[in-house]
Specification:
Blueprint lengths: L4 H12 L3 H5 L10 H8 L6 H9 L2 H13 L3 H16 L3 H13 L3 H13 L10 H9 L4 H14 L5 H5 L3 H17 L8 H14 L3 H22 L4 H14 L6 H14 L3 H9 L3 E2 L2 E2 L4 H14 L3 H14 L5 H18 L2
Antiparallel strand pairs: 1-2
Helix pairs in contact: 5-6, 6-7, 7-8, 9-10, 9-12, 10-12, 12-13, 12-14, 13-14, 14-15, 14-16, 15-16, 16-17, 17-18, 18-19, 19-20
């Protein structure tokens, strides 16, 4: 079978950039039937009922389309319709659909709606343990999540991650790898707070797992976690080595395999660059597009855009700042009342930049 991924990436790039002509010039077999409806949605064209029915019958297509529409900041009415498709699946107990729709609600500034959906994702409709508990911790860091919800998950995770065997992690035992993964996110979300998970201790555990691992694939995650945790500890302590450690974390981030946490790592990395006095490096991180199978990671999309807008404005990149502000406000065009004041403040920032 021929290696066709480059063609697929070209098709995805054409959609992300709205380049209809390039898309039409691709071999027919790579013109995904989802893409023409996306072009139409980006142009603000209403789709007929048969197309919506076709989208509803396909699980991957609504996910993929929702990611793209958010990423390019176009066709938000279409994105809302796609989110409704996923929310209807979530109502039937589909945890994955609930997670995607919950992410969309958080980007839209609708934390109340997001909590309803993430509750479904947490149990996957079956009453089992949290499907991806880290998402709650990350929501507490960068999204508009309810603090009590985040704290509940944080406390439950702390109990189950108290004892971890680095040897078992290095041997690839799934349960121990998952526990180390969650322990690292606990340390990051606590940010060294009193009574929280110790950053340096967790970094040492990740380093031990990395040293014991007998192949690169197994050691990649502990290595990345260790570098980020060591950088965070140095930044918080005002250690002279902080800049070098942040650079080491950046290197580990750049070399690591793409994952659903890519946007979280990058947002954290941009914040650390800010704290060590390197705003250009921070903006460089926020400019990156993190793709996975043609889809931009939508986690933290709204806060990433706002950080980028403010940093670009401070550094004199006016057009970039305006574009990022506008994209952010497109996502947050219908926030819940609790966020209305915050969004109004951002509108004022953009108006001042525009000289209005």
């Amino acid at each position: 079978m021929a290696y066709d991924e480059p063609w697929e990436h070209m098709a995805e790039h054409a959609v992300m950039t709205g380049d209809v002509e390039s898309f039409r010039n691709l071999p027919t077999q790579f013109q995904d039937p989802l893409f023409p409806p996306l072009f139409a949605l980006m142009a603000g064209t209403e789709l007929d009922s048969s197309v919506w029915q076709e989208l509803e019958e396909s699980y991957q297509s609504p996910n993929h389309g929702l990611f793209i529409l958010q990423a390019v900041g176009e066709g938000m009415e279409g994105a809302e319709r796609l989110a409704q498709i996923l929310a209807s699946r979530a109502a039937d107990g589909d945890g994955n659909a609930a997670q995607i729709a919950g992410n969309f609600a958080l980007n839209r500034g609708q934390p109340g709606r997001a909590i309803e959906l993430l509750r479904i994702a947490e149990t996957d409709g079956c009453g089992d343990v949290c499907q991806e508990p880290e998402m709650w911790l990350l929501a507490g860091m960068y999204w508009d999540a309810e603090p009590n919800e985040v704290r509940r998950v944080r406390d439950s995770l702390e109990i189950v991650t108290r004892e971890i065997s680095a040897e078992a992690v290095a041997q690839g035992h799934r349960d121990e790898v998952v526990k180390l993964h969650q322990r690292c996110w606990l340390a990051i979300s606590d940010l060294g707070s009193a009574g929280g998970v110790d950053l340096e201790q967790t970094a040492a555990l990740a380093r031990q797992a990395e040293d014991l691992a007998d192949n690169v694939r197994r050691s990649r995650f502990p290595a990345r976690c260790a570098r980020f945790l060591e950088a965070l500890a140095a930044v918080q302590a005002g250690d002279p080595s902080a800049g070098a450690r942040v650079a080491a974390a950046d290197s580990a981030f750049s070399m690591g395999a793409p994952s659903r946490y890519q946007a979280a790592w990058a947002t954290l990395l941009a914040d650390m660059y800010d704290r060590v006095g390197e705003p250009e490096q921070s903006l460089g991180i926020l400019r990156r597009v993190w793709m996975n199978g043609g889809e931009e990671y939508v986690q933290f999309l709204a806060p990433r855009l706002l950080r980028r807008a403010r940093r670009a404005a401070e550094l004199g990149y006016r057009e970039e700042a305006i574009q990022s502000y506008q994209h952010y406000l497109t996502l947050r065009s219908d926030p819940e009342p609790v966020l209305a004041e915050q969004v109004a403040s951002v509108r004022a920032e953009l108006a001042e930049l525009l000289g209005e």
